[in-house]
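I am still getting used to backbone structure tokens and would like to learn alongside you. To get us started, please write out a protein record for me. Start from the sequence, derive the backbone structure tokens from it, and show both lines together. Once you have written the record down, we can walk along the chain together:
***
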Amino acid sequence: MTKARVPVTFPNAITRIAGLITFEEAARIVGRSDRCVRDWSDPYSTALPSLDQGLGLDAAYRAAGGEGSPILETYTALLGQQIDAQSACRQTLCAEIASAAAEFGEAVETSLAVTLDGANDRAVQGALHEVEQAQTKLGTVLRRLQSFLPGGVGPNGGTAGGGPK
């Protein structure tokens, strides 16, 4: 059965290489079995070549007249996607901090108005509303900041924002 190969994945890169140099030749180049190299091309397998093996396969692909370097191109694209995602999280954090700061400013302003002579229940209600909004925005910032810790927060946390430094 032919399995669909998603572009910009290592299995697709291995398939491109083997399509030119054959699986048998790829196996010979990396010193592994034909089955091993076929596993690398299987989109349902987690097996991948080492960096040295990938270099060898890309070099053999080029030597056989192939255009580009499939493994290098895939690595470069995936790295770019990860960097873009991290950058997007940092940009989102900046926007969330700005929004929280604005809400906090409004909360301070309306709360200070309660301290003035003649402040009424409406002023207190307005201040409470602004403080609740600021609290919500600060909670959003808190959760985003936690995503920048390696492993997130707690034993099962994520690394949506930054991962290890």
